[in-house]
């Protein structure tokens, strides 16, 4: 039985992922995360919030992994290579430009102010650092079924934003979307058996996917913090060109293109 939503969205999602219906979608999200984290490097990885009793960043190549959450799971404390910080996710106790990679697993879906949270994450991330975000697709088949047909409070009270809107938020902050992907199209979990219905729905949704409509239930986005290099303005300064000749003779040529004059200085020993 899943936890009530009053205890928090991520604890309720963690409990739902352990259920028979939710474990199938958790496995899909793990595949997306493993693929996204495989080619990201750095010294410090910060994960904001916990959605599983397992270490979801175990396959990351980053040296130091830090989990920041309001409540720490006893099972995760036994995991090797994972450090813990207990804090409120709305007010992150992390300095500026210290993290190479920040993971937000469904963190924006329960944040009181997702824009403020993204600005905090932006200040924590180093230049050219990466941010990885996962969330539920509002038009995903299983998401809509649990949200409107089964009356699952977990999905009804969550803030579900589309991937397109998330790209717009990141673009305003100066991020380049490096990659994104959706989970497999499915309306039912692997434990449910509706072969004819599932086959027809997946064929229908795959047709829409070819024209740009994504119906995967979970998305994973990787964005890179863009830092524009300053461009020098004013006069174009350049060093004089030296030419070394045989013996001890050195010629120094300096051209002044503005006046068209040429001066030649010769040094002899």
TrEMBL record:
Q: Name one GO molecular function term.
A: methyltransferase activity
Q: Name one GO biological process term.
A: methylation
Q: Which domain of life is it from?
A: Bacteria
**UniProt keywords, alphabetically:** Methyltransferase, Transferase
The answer to keyword Methyltransferase applying to this record is yes
Q: Which Pfam families match?
A: Methyltransf_11
Protein name (database record): Methyltransferase domain-containing protein
